[in-house]
Here is the input.
Amino acid sequence: MANKSVKVRINGRVQGVFFRHHTKLMADGLGLAGWVKNCPDGSVEALCSGSTDNVNQMIDWLHLGPDSALVNRVDIDELENQSSPQKEFTIRY
Here is the structure.
């Protein structure tokens, strides 16, 4: 099974709407490793590592986010030959 790692920046109304919490739930359900955090500019950033199919599902979900979010833009940076050093998905504060 092929693996994939991406760093993603999500812009819009994505802070104060439980975006990180829902991202963790989705990542845990997909068996992904990595992290999610709020950024000072109001965006949310995430590192997602796992099977290519599951990372792609996560990217699709990040374009929508939880019901209370309004995603305007998602920037994706594929990381070649790099995976999360973590074995689980965490929320960074």
Summary: The mean pLDDT is 94. Helices lie at 19-30, 52-62.
